Model the fold of this input.
Amino acid sequence: MSVPAPAASTTAPALEAAVVAAFPYLIGGLAAAVALLLVPGPWDVFPKFVIQLAGLVLLGLVVTTRLLGFTRSAWYQFTGWSERAKRLAGDVSLVVVVTGLVGLVTLASSAALRLEPSLQFLQLLSALDIAWAGAAIMIGAYRLWGRGAALVGGSLLGVFCVWSIWNYLRVVGFNDADGWLLEGGQVMRLVLPFDMMAAVVAITLLVVGSGRAEPPAQRTAQASDQS
Done:
């Protein structure tokens, strides 16, 4: 009795290619984290935290820029979903790749910098939050307006979010052990408004951008070829 072969999946090759493209950045980030063990201390915790966060945000932007071309890969062709749903699912998969990579480097670099555990947790939350929103904004903007808009959108998001964390720490400070001093009122006033705006913009661009199969440069080139 023959067993029918499973349906071929074009998602796995697309995801595999994206992971392979991102892998060198993961290795570089982890190597940089190990190198931080050699940096003499002690550092003041405030600039150390903010500089680390800025570096993680930059890593996320660079990796997302590298992966923008994979928005044109064939994702989830075996599902029977609409083409728009397939594109959206593929874009979300790229966001997950970027966010996971940034999270791993955050864990390693925070340990290497010997941050207090609660501060390591704050750094992880901050880095993941900025990474997913930044990747989503860049991918959506890339589909709608091209690479330049993606770079500008991701950079602005990173600057505003890092500034909001810097401002919170400047106002609230740290606990006696140089850990995260959580003040709910200040979080609601100084951090959450930026997070909520970033999330709304990111989701909107990702969803709206999924309606475009190609970024402007490719659409223009295809139109020229057909004329």
